[in-house]
Design goal:
11 strands, de novo design (two linked rop proteins), 3 domains, alpha/beta, Rossmann fold, five-stranded mixed sheet, Ubiquitin-like (UB roll)
Length: 430
């Protein structure tokens, strides 16, 4: 099994076969209905495929939540140039562990989604950019691609349709910044993994200078189900503005951490208390980060009002992001946790933009000083001012990811910072 815990609340569409190694085999996948959606898409034609994905309301599952069908429609129709579909499998956001499991247990689901997406946008080549540390996952995917080629689901004249599609698996070298779509493209091209200034946008000038679309693993895994069952079927899950199911990566101080596939709009507290078995040791809830370490922290009261959809998270002052739910109980040291997050981003900054390069490093230093009992109250104002200057002033949003946990933690847990400052005591080991 991928994880030992399941819940009656789950709607297992993408994760249906988690824990079943037979699903990795192409014959089993086909016996269970696999690659039929690809065949159906060839019968529909590219425009109808895009329209169906639009009708489903599928939003990008990598964090931004942009409508997938709309994103596909940005690709030029008759450019006379090669088009590329890029799958972002460089999963590296702290607290996120869904994409690797989708690939590990159901690789052909991703391959089929990639092929449908490529066909819809007029691409003849797909690149799946995988995080290099996913050793087992990368092996599973490589074998699945080989099997799909051998069975004629990738390559020339797929399923007798007259369509040619190729797929390449590319392993990255472990840089967080390559999860940003243009940093990914640079890395794929053999360049330094640094984000590009936009415009031009990837749909105009993308990988190898050609029109390109980048989608997340979970996004593309949903596509075969949408094409196979219809956009209206997909809208039967979730909310009007946030349709479908979502994999929630739950970690931290809960009794049953793991991946859970739930309809969007699911109440956060129901996830914690019923799906995940409550907070560990019967402790009280202190804080939650609902979308990975790059989104604002919310306190217990806000958590009680939060629904896990794009709009519901915004309503309580945070973001859904990639739905990586990090739960902290009353024993958690907020200052230490935020410092650790900032340390990560400072280390992973590509250094291209001054506000990010300098701001993340200085933010980490000040937080460390406060944690060590050497901080002042003026440091808090410095942190707020400095991180504000980091928001919206860089090529990508890594510096914004530093600012979010810092600002939200000072606003909501200021007393914890002041207690350290006024006591002048070191909190704990790094």
């Amino acid at each position: 099994m991928a994880y030992p815990y399941v819940s009656d609340h789950e709607v297992r569409v993408l994760s249906k076969y988690f824990g079943d190694p037979k699903q990795r085999q192409v014959d089993t996948y086909v016996e269970r209905g696999g690659y039929q959606a690809l065949k159906k898409s060839f019968d529909m034609g590219p425009e109808k495929v895009v329209d169906e994905v639009k009708a489903s309301g599928l939003r990008g599952r990598g964090g931004a939540g942009f409508p997938t069908g709309v994103k596909w429609s940005f690709m030029p129709k008759e450019s006379g140039r090669p088009h590329y579909l890029l799958c972002n499998a460089d999963e590296s956001e702290p607290g996120t562990f869904k994409d690797r499991e989708l690939i590990r247990w159901d690789p052909h689901q991703l391959i089929e989604g990639c092929l449908i997406g490529a066909y819809a946008i007029g691409a003849k080549h797909v690149y799946i950019y995988c995080r290099g540390e996913f050793f087992e996952t990368n092996q599973v995917l490589a074998r699945a691609v080989e099997d799909a080629y051998a069975q004629g689901y990738i390559g020339k004249d797929i399923m007798g349709s007259g369509n040619d599609l190729d797929l390449t698996v590319h392993q990255g070298a472990g840089a967080y910044i390559c999860g940003e779509e243009t940093g990914l493209m640079n890395s794929l091209e053999g360049r330094r993994g640094q984000p590009r200034v936009k415009p031009p946008f990837p749909a105009a000038v993308g990988a190898f200078g050609m029109p390109s679309t980048i989608n997340n693993v979970e996004t593309l895994c949903a596509v075969p189900h949408i094409i196979g069952n219809g956009g209206d079927w997909y809208r039967g899950f979730g909310t009007e503005q946030s349709p479908g199911t979502k994999l929630f990566c739950v970690s931290g101080h809960v009794n049953k951490p793991g991946n859970y596939e739930l309809p969007l709009g699911f109440p956060l507290m129901t996830l914690i208390e019923e799906v995940c078995g409550g907070v560990r040791d019967g402790n009280a809830l202190k804080a939650v980060i609902p979308g990975g370490s790059s989104v604002p922290i919310i306190n217990a009261e806000e958590s009680s009002r939060c629904t896990l959809d794009y709009e519901g998270c915004v309503d309580v002052g945070t973001m859904l992001g990639c739905a990586s739910v990090i739960v902290m109980d009353e024993t958690a040291d907020i200052v230490k946790q935020v410092r650790r997050m900032v340390d990560f981003y400072a280390h992973e900054s590509c250094g291209q933009c001054t506000p990010c390069r300098e701001g993340s490093a200085w933010t980490a230093q000040i937080l460390k000083r406060i944690e060590d009992g050497r901080g002042t109250e003026e440091d808090l104002e410095t942190l707020m001012e400095m991180t504000q200057q980091m928001v919206g002033t860089t090529i990508c949003v890594l510096s914004d990811s530093v600012a979010a946990p810092v600002q939200s933690s000072i606003e909501k847990f200021r007393d914890e910072y002041l207690a350290l400052i006024r006591r002048g005591e070191r909190v704990g080991a790094a």
